[in-house]
């Protein structure tokens, strides 16, 4: 049971996605690239394992490696990902 993904939280989740989308647009990347970049910037002991069945998605995932995040952007994304975001 994950409360964040229950129907009553749909609007809250949409608001969170809008914030992520705004940051991604400013960075010139997609929201999924931003999410992968955020995981990549978590440290050397953390890695993402994205799955894909389409070449265009694979290329998009690889593009996340070129997304750099400032400490301010990391803090904002961390806040969005937290239960208070």
Automatic annotation (TrEMBL):
Recorded hits in PANTHER family, A to Z, give: AFLATOXIN B1 ALDEHYDE REDUCTASE (PTHR43625), ALDO-KETO REDUCTASE YAKC [NADP(+)] (PTHR43625:SF40)
Pfam families, per database record: Aldo_ket_red
Q: What is this protein called?
A: NADP-dependent oxidoreductase domain-containing protein
What InterPro entries does this protein map onto?
Answer: Aldo-Keto_reductase, NAD(P)_OxRdtase_dom_sf, NADP_OxRdtase_dom
Spell out the molecular function terms from Gene Ontology: oxidoreductase activity
Q: Specify the taxonomic lineage.
A: Eukaryota, Viridiplantae, Streptophyta, Embryophyta, Tracheophyta
Domain (NADP-dependent oxidoreductase) spans 10-80
- Is Zinc-finger included in the keywords of this UniProt record? no
What Gene3D superfamilies is this protein classified in?
Answer: NADP-dependent oxidoreductase domain (3.20.20.100)
